[in-house]
From TrEMBL:
The Lumazine-binding repeat ranges on this chain: 1-95, 96-192
Domain of life from the UniProt record: Bacteria
Family matches, as CDD domains: Riboflavin_synthase_like (cd00402)
Protein name: Riboflavin synthase
UniProt EC number: 2.5.1.9
Matching InterPro entries: ATP_synth_asu-like_sf, Lumazine-bd, Lumazine-bd_dom, Riboflavin_synthase-like_b-brl
Domain Lumazine-binding, residue spans: 1-95, 96-192
Recorded metabolic or biological pathway in which this protein acts: Cofactor biosynthesis; riboflavin biosynthesis; riboflavin from 2-hydroxy-3-oxobutyl phosphate and 5-amino-6-(D-ribitylamino)uracil: step 2/2
Organism in which the protein naturally occurs: Flavihumibacter stibioxidans
Pfam families: Lum_binding
Stated role: Catalyzes the dismutation of two molecules of 6,7-dimethyl-8-ribityllumazine, resulting in the formation of riboflavin and 5-amino-6-(D-ribitylamino)uracil.
């Protein structure tokens, strides 16, 4: 379980294929503090640490993860948002995030607002019921607030701190990002199917 508040950024240093799996090595300021078998959000995808070297850690994505996320597009040198799982004795500064990506969205615009940035994204229409005005969404693991929604599009605003300390800075029109919708909304939609 995560909060969507990014702790650090990592850089992909090596990518290897192993059968249908893809192995990623990342260098980050928190790699030395991680432990094998620990769950860490990588751009919103919950991945298990399976090896550690000085200043680096390794994770493996299986075929299903590569299919449902943007990890198949990752390349050496890419920045990745990192967040360790939340402690149950602290504040929940973002919202409840599972690290289970629902789909990818495509950035359709990015505007510098002279002090903030506005991004607009398109999502598959099948997820329209999961976005609400001023609701929460996770983009590449970052907890953000939605506005100006339609059935297939929404906008988010990015403050300077978030822009400088997450990989949203690498997102431009045409970029695919990982999306996790609010878990409460997903449960409500499921319950309504039985009414």
């Amino acid at each position: 379980m995560f909060t969507g508040i990014i702790e650090a950024m990592g850089t992909i240093t090596r990518i290897e294929d192993s059968g249908t799996n893809r192995i990623f090595w990342l260098e980050s300021p928190i790699s030395q503090e991680l432990s094998i078998d620990q769950s860490v959000s990588h751009d919103g995808v919950c991945l298990t640490i399976d090896a550690i070297e000085p200043g680096k850690h390794r994770v493996t994505a299986i075929a299903e993860t590569l299919l449902k996320t943007n990890l198949s597009q990752w390349a050496e040198g890419n920045l990745v948002n990192l967040e360790r799982s939340m402690l149950m004795n602290g504040r929940l500064d973002g919202h409840i995030v599972q690290g289970h990506v629902d789909c990818t969205a495509i950035c359709i615009s990015r505007h510098d607002k002279n002090g903030s940035w506005e991004y607009r994204f398109s999502i598959p229409a099948e997820f329209a019921a999961l976005i609400i005005e001023k609701g929460s969404i996770t983009i590449n693991g970052t907890s953000l607030t939605l506005y100006d929604i339609t059935d297939t599009e929404f906008s988010v605003s990015i403050i300077p701190y978030t822009f400088e300390n997450t990989d949203i800075q690498k997102v431009f029109p045409g970029s695919a990002v990982n999306i996790e919708f609010d878990i409460i909304g997903k449960y409500i939609r499921r319950l309504k199917q039985f009414e």
